[in-house]
Amino acid sequence: MNSYQKTAAVGLFVILGATLFLGGVLWLRGKSVGKAELNVLYTDIGNLKEGAPVRISGAPVGRVTEIVYQDQGRVAVGIKFAEKIVVTATATAPITAVGMLGDEVIMLDPGRGTPLAPGDTIKGSIAPGVFDKAAIIAEQAAQTLTKVNAMLDPKLIADLRNTLTSTQKFMAFLADQQNGPTSQVKPTLLVLQRTTARLDSTLTQIDAKSLQARVDTTMRAATSATNRLGAMTAHADSLMTRIEHGNGTVSKLLNDSTLYSDLRKTMQAMTDLLNEIKKNPGKIGVTVKVF
């Protein structure tokens, strides 16, 4: 091998080594050769850096290859995938902080619908991280404590103390066995026990057979009275039926239309006669015949 060939071989190895070194550096920084397969436009990227992983359902599928500042509230982030990923028009790419150190990654959701062409742009967002959520919780806790402090004013505390004092006095009164309401419980139970004993004694003295015989006699008497009442009702129904059909003297008297008129005339004649006697007592002559 002549000197020229040696020099060319050394130069080739140097170029190859430099290329490998440059490629390794770019790979470590998350950069790759070629254009981004997906561009995401953010208003704020937080602490996102080049080389940050891109995940789908928690699995790494690519990396951030470039971050380009375009304008206030406009930062373009280029993504390159390690495998074939079909991104659609409904895709979302929020930046999320993971871990205690708050390392930020892009949680990509490819979505469903019409696939995007390589290099298309979608809008991204930034999700609150662990520290942001902790700050929100701390703010809410501070607001809650402020409301609690506002509620616990001196007047309210005094009212609570008075209420507790009154409650303690009332409980002490209830527990007082001499002057409290519980003092009447024992005498009441004794009276109830005596009444129960008397009732048991009375029930024991009752002759069940005699009582049963009396009840049977009363039931038979009641049955007999019911039967008599039924017979009387049937007789009355029969009598009313006969009267309605015009049978008997009573029916004729009730159904005779001239009886009422004759009775009215008789009463009117008697009234006229009495009036005449009152007016002329000596006018009416009395004839007495002696045989």
Quickly list its features.
single chain, eight-stranded mixed sheet, elongated
Task: Write up this protein.
The protein is an alpha/beta fold and 291 residues long. It folds into four domains: 1-30; 34-133, no CATH class; 152-205; 214-271. 54% of the residues lie in helices and 15% in strands. The chain has seven helices and eight strands, in the order H-E-E-E-E-E-E-E-E-H-H-H-H-H-H. An eight-stranded mixed sheet has the order 7-1-4-3-2-6-5-8, with no helix packed on it.
Low-confidence stretches: none
Amount of helix: 40-55%
Report, as a whole number of angstroms, the end-to-end distance. 209 Å
Beta strands, count: 8
Task: Quickly count the domains.
Answer: 4
Multimerization status: single chain
Largest sheet: 8 strands, mixed
Global structural class: alpha/beta
What is the 3D shape? elongated
The count of helical stretches stands at 7
Strand content: 15-25%
Arithmetic mean pLDDT: 79
How are strands sequenced across the largest beta sheet? Answer: 7-1-4-3-2-6-5-8
Name the helix and strand elements from N-terminus to C-terminus, one letter apiece. HEEEEEEEEHHHHHH
Secondary structure layout:
Elements (H helix, E strand, L loop, with lengths): L2 H26 L9 E5 L10 E4 L2 E13 L2 E8 L12 E5 L4 E5 L13 E3 L1 E2 L3 H22 L2 H22 L9 H21 L2 H37 L4 H7 L1 H23 L12
Parallel strand pairs: 1-7, 2-6, 5-8
Antiparallel strand pairs: 1-4, 2-3, 3-4, 5-6
